[in-house]
């Protein structure tokens, strides 16, 4: 089990991250939101793909979900990656995003929304992700257990071109990656 956890974190998770971000045709100037950004895996990779854009990470910094996560930790990682000039973080809840409607070209989230314990809370978080996505923008999600429910909800909200991966086994739990587009 320990070996599988190491393989998942060191090898498989970076593969999932790459395939998650590969779903978007990057122009390089996108405004990106990373929901549940933790120590910055998605946010930093997105900042590299948007050298003329801007990335915002938001997190509640729950130690129980990710040891050592904090604004200082992600900032240090962004500095080390050379993207600190275009990455900021906010403290906030995915269920009540502190941004106006249609703020972001890309809204991404990886292994975060499942941490909301109740289905109603996860539904609210997906509705919030949809609200802050600009028309023509894309939502990119990888999550364990509930990702297909998120995609189904986004379809009812009007998302198009929903592309769902085959099941992906990370840390011994099945997950799915998908992209969904908000019509322009
Ligand atoms: C397993 S970590 C994943 C971090 C990062 N996305 C990654 O893939 O490395 C889950 C993150 O979601 C955050 N989180 C959990 N519930 C949240 C909520 N309701 N709103 C915002 N962030 C939340 C946790 O604090 C934690 O940093």
TrEMBL record:
Swiss-Prot/TrEMBL keywords: Methyltransferase, Transferase
A matching Pfam family: Methyltransf_11
Limits of the Methyltransferase type domain: 33-141
Protein origin, superkingdom: Bacteria
This protein's record includes keyword Nucleotide-binding: no
Listed GO MF terms: S-adenosylmethionine-dependent methyltransferase activity
GO biological process terms, semicolon-separated: methylation
UniProt protein name: Class I SAM-dependent methyltransferase
Originating organism: Sphingomonas panacisoli
């Amino acid at each position: 089990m320990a070996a599988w956890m190491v393989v998942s974190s060191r090898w498989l998770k970076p593969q999932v991250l790459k395939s998650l971000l590969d779903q978007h045709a990057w122009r390089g100037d996108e405004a990106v939101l990373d929901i549940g950004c933790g120590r910055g895996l998605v946010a930093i990779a997105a900042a590299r793909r948007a050298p003329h854009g801007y990335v915002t990470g938001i997190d509640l910094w729950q130690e129980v979900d990710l040891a050592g996560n904090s604004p200082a930790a992600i900032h240090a990682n962004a500095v080390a990656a050379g993207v600190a000039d275009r990455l900021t973080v906010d403290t906030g809840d995915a269920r009540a995003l502190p941004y106006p409607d249609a703020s972001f070209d890309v809204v991404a989230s990886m292994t975060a929304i499942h941490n909301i314990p109740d289905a109603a809370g996860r539904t609210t978080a997906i509705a919030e992700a949809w609200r802050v996505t600009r028309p023509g923008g894309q939502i990119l999600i990888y999550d364990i257990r509930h990702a297909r429910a998120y995609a189904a909800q986004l379809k009812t909200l009007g998302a198009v071109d929903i592309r769902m991966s085959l099941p992906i086994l990370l840390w011994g739990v099945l997950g799915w990656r998908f992209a969904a587009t908000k019509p322009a």
